[in-house]
Structures are given as C-alpha cells and as structure tokens.
Amino acid sequence: MNVSAKPERTRLSAEDWEDAALRLIADQGVGALAVEALARQLGVTKGSFYWHFRTREALLQAALERWEQYGEKEVISQIEAMPDPRARLPELFRRVAHELAPHRVYAALLKALDHPQVVPVMARVSQRRMEFLTNIYREAGLPADEALNRARLTYAAYVGFLQLNFTLGLPRISHEEFDAYVEHMIRTLTPA
Amino acid sequence: MNVSAKPERTRLSAEDWEDAALRLIADQGVGALAVEALARQLGVTKGSFYWHFRTREALLQAALERWEQYGEKEVISQIEAMPDPRARLPELFRRVAHELAPHRVYAALLKALDHPQVVPVMARVSQRRMEFLTNIYREAGLPADEALNRARLTYAAYVGFLQLNFTLGLPRISHEEFDAYVEHMIRTLTPA
DNA sequence: GCTGGACCATACGCATGAGTATGTAGGCCT
DNA sequence: AGGCCTACATACTCATGCGTATGGTCCAGC
Fold it and tell me: How many CA atoms lie within 13 A of A13 on its CB side?
C-alpha cells in the first residue's frame, strides 16, 4: 500500500505556499508559521520552499499582501449598492456577524501585532474599514465628527468582540444570545 | 567611569523577578520574556533565575497570577462607593480613559492569547470586569438582558480600543480629539 | 571563627528552527 | 534524442534560548 501523506502530488507555486500560510495563520497564529511545518503539511520539504521564497520573512510578507489585496471588496461594494442609506448599517452588522470565517485571519493577526511586519498591513486595513464605516454613518445622517467617533466606537467593538470570543472564547455564548447581542448592538450604535 | 547597567546590586527575590517580568511584558510583549534578557536587565545571570524558579514557564505563571491579584480592586471599590448609580458610568469611562498606564499589561496580554498560559488568566479577569460592568448598567436602570449585552458591547469597545491605539497606534489621535471620543462614547453607551 | 544555606557566576548540553549547498527527477522545447 | 530549467530532496551549518551542573561568595547564627 502507498502510505504517502497526501495523494495530491502536483507541483506547487508560490501562491500555493501563500495560501497554505494564511490557512496556518488562521488556525494556529503567526507564531506557528514555520517553513518545515508548512512543508510537511504540503507534503514536501524545505528544499521546495527556498526555491519559491528567499526567506520565511518573505513568505509572511507575500501572504499578508495577498490577504490584504483580496480583502473585503465584495462586502463593501454590496453594501454601498444598497439604495437606502439607513438600511446599510443593520445589514452590514448582521452580515459581518454571521460570516465569521473571513475574520479568522484578521483575528489571528490581531494577536500578532508584536511582529513588525503585520503592523502596517493591519493599520492600512483597519484604516480603510473605519473610513468606510465613517462614510456610512455620515450617509445615515450623522454630522462629520459624530460619524467619525461613532465609526471608531463601532470598529473598536468589532475588534474587541473578535478578541473576546474567537481568541479568548469568553462568553461561550449561544446562538440565540448572539443574535440578541447583534440586535442590541444595532439598536445602540445605529442613529435613530 | 562605571558603565554598569544598574547600580542596585542588592540580592533579588522571586517577587523582584515577577515585577521585572511584568514590566518587560508591558513594553515588549510576552514573546520577549527570555530569562537571559531579564537577567541582563536585572544585572545578574541565569544562575540567579534558576534558583528562584524551576522554569521560564513558572515565572510567567507567577507573574500572571501576581498581576491578576493586585488588579483593579481600588477602581472597582471607588466606583461602587459613588452614591448616584447614573453617575458611575461616566466616571468609570473617564477614569479608565485617562489612566492608560495600568492597561498596558492587559494590552500586551491581548497580543499573547496564543500562549495557553495567558488565556485562563485573561478569561477570568475579563469575565470579572464584564460582570462588574453588567451590574453598573443594571443599577443605572437597564433590564437584565439589556445590561448584559450593553456590558459586552462596552467591554468589547474597550478591548478594541486598546488594540487599535496602544498596539496598532492607529488613529494618531490628538488629546482633544480623544476627549471628544470619550464623551461621544459616554453619550451613546450610557442609558439616557 | 566556622558552618550552612541563600544567592549568584560560569560553562556546559541540547533541542529547535532558519538558511545553505548540492544533487536529482521529470517535463518541455527544439 | 539531447539539453535545460523547474521543482524538489538530502544533508549539512549556525544561531538562539532553555535548562543543568557545579563551584564560588556573602551573611546569619551558634
């Protein structure tokens, strides 16, 4: 019998390594990103890795940029396409709340803010998202400074929620309780 | 000239090591907690360390428990001593906002949630704080479930703010802007 | 004034993980 | 059919950081 680990023995590309790196980051954190571990997981050895990348740092960089690029564009454009500005905020909240998978990388990177490489990426992504939120709040009727502060508050709540639940697993909240929380959040953060 | 790092050459105790560890964690993160580095910083060598602690893990554990114990008791008791329940929330918010130093360890531990040792400590501390917040919201007039959700939201905003500012240094916010943000937060999160 | 224990120095062993050097199998082009 | 380039294997070097072994120094107390 053939006991080889993975039957998929096709050749790998740099993108394959970057995707694998992002998956590993998503469920084990940036600290677990080791080239030999990744190689084992892909069914090859380090020899392959160092053909595609000059260093481990380069892989991290490439993976982060890849993640940053194909980001949250579809969500943003879909929300902006909604005709009624007041309806956008609740829709955005519910959407983000129920698609937790895409936020796993972001949550993992939140725990890796001591690595100098991830800081600028997270800064850019967070900045863009907050500007997006600020615009929505303005279109919902808030004056400029209020909209900015409300966006800060909302995004902070989002980030904190990721930490407390994903990472810390804190409230061990049930599904119904979670929905109630989201609706509460909509009521208190959305302008009446 | 004497160029030795620290002139204090008294003997050290386990508590000295724990305090030094917490300081190092506060400004360089848990990942930077290495015994030789700590020893250099204290003007001694590893030989000293391994007399006081069996392992590096033991030091981390002791430091975390020390931090957990001498926690935020004074703030909590002072807030609870206030006669008017409605006045407690704004006071708590302003207080926390302007005493950022004590939150540096918490912020550092937030980035270290991949270390199995810090998770339970952070879970306990966060849980206690959220229960405290929930009580305040109830005393301010919110029904039980509303109070719980509002506490979750508030604490998430706190955690997220620490990440976005301390760690990420994101908005590069000015002092006046920050005060305005705090007041905005009070207006939108405090029951009218 | 001697001794035992607290506190620390020095010099190792050892595991892990990054990076390098070099050899090699298979597809593609001519 | 021969050559070559891509993708990978194998076998190392090297740095870092934990932990250990052992010996030294200072001070308390009989």
Answer: 2
- Cβ separation of A110 and B163 shorter than 8 Å? yes
CA of A128, C1' of C12: distance in angstroms? 53
Q: Chain B partners of A188 at a C-beta cutoff of 8 Å? A: 150, 153, 188-189
pLDDT, mean of each 10-residue run, chain B (192 residues):
42 89 93 94 92 95 93 80 90 90 91 93 94 94 96 97 86 87 96 84
Closest CA to B132 of B91, B80, B189, B95: B80
Q: Which helix (H) or strand (E) holds B20?
A: helix B14-28
Q: Which H helix or E strand runs over A126? A: helix A118-139
Q: Could you tell me the distance in Å between the CA of residue A180 and the C1' of nucleotide D21?
A: 61
CA Rg value for chain A: 20
Tell me the CA distances in angstroms from A83 to A72, A141, B107, B181, one per residue in order. Answer: 20, 14, 40, 30
Of B126, B149, B167, the CB nearest to A180: B149
Phi-psi category of residue A176: left, alpha or beta, with phi > 0 → left and psi -120 to 50 → alpha: alpha
Number of neighbours of residue B11 by Cβ within 10 angstroms: 7
* Those residues with Cβ within 8 angstroms of residue A98's Cβ, 6 or more apart along the chain or in another chain: none
Structure tokens at B15: 């508590």
